[in-house]
Design a protein that fits this description.
mainly alpha, transmembrane helix, membrane, transmembrane, ABC-type transporter activity
Length: 236
């Protein structure tokens, strides 16, 4: 947000950006320094990077809700209570989704406040809302994925695996964009690319379709995680 307050820094940033390889800029979600002059696209660039961090948090946090329960033997105390596995599972789903929601909401509110303070004519509440709502759904998908993976087994699954999957899907989207015309199909394996801030602002039919598919996959993962958690044998 430093450049948003001190516009004189843009010329210096222009020089620095011109020295960087185009591939590196694409990796960070930056196409042109002119993005810095528009608050919404500038926020989208920053939000795109933060979404990776939020997704890693979402998948590791949701996985640890189940994995640490078995590791720390706290599952024994839950079994001593008059609650079913279904109730235990859905309480964890609620905790995971609420945690992700408040993280995304906090970042979104901070971006809106900075927009009102320094965005001037380039700030648009409608566009900001579109970016936050559409791109902000990515961490929820990874939270569901984390719950699904951790509900299968603790022997071959760890929170590190979840973080690795997040980075892998991001890199697939990056490669699909970098190898445009040669490996475009790779971007369809990356929710980061399908629901990127750029696509959120364009709101094409493809973006709506991708949003629907990812939302459906999130629900499906939660359902299958519920089934797996109910049948899972915990090491007590």
């Amino acid at each position: 947000m430093y450049m948003a307050f001190f516009s004189t820094m843009q010329e210096m940033a222009q020089v620095k950006f011109e020295m960087l390889p185009k591939e590196y800029l694409q990796l960070m979600g930056v196409e042109d320094i002119s993005q810095m002059g528009n608050y919404v696209t500038f926020f989208g660039m920053i939000f795109n990077i933060l979404i990776i961090i939020m997704s890693i948090y979402a998948v590791t946090f949701s996985m640890n809700l189940i994995l640490k329960e078995e590791k720390n033997k706290t599952i024994e105390y839950l079994y001593a209570l008059s609650v079913t596995r279904k109730e235990i599972y859905f309480s964890k789903v609620l905790v995971a989704l609420c945690a992700v929601f408040f993280v995304v909401l906090s970042v979104g509110i901070a971006g809106i406040i900075f927009g009102f303070a320094s965005g001037s004519d380039t700030f648009s509440m409608v566009d900001m809302s579109a970016v936050i709502k559409i791109t902000g759904t990515v961490p929820f998908f990874f939270a569901a994925l984390g719950l699904f993976l951790s509900s299968l087994s603790s022997k071959y699954v760890s929170s590190g695996l979840g973080a690795g999957i997040v980075m892998l899907t991001y890199m697939l989207g990056y490669l699909g964009k970098l190898l445009e015309g040669k490996a475009d199909f790779l971007k369809y394996f990356s929710p980061f690319e399908l629901l990127s801030p750029t696509n959120a602002l364009a709101l094409s039919g493809e973006t709506y379709g991708a949003f629907g598919v990812i939302a459906a996959l999130t629900v499906i993962l939660l359902i299958f995680a519920s089934i797996a958690y109910k049948k899972r044998d915990f090491s007590l």
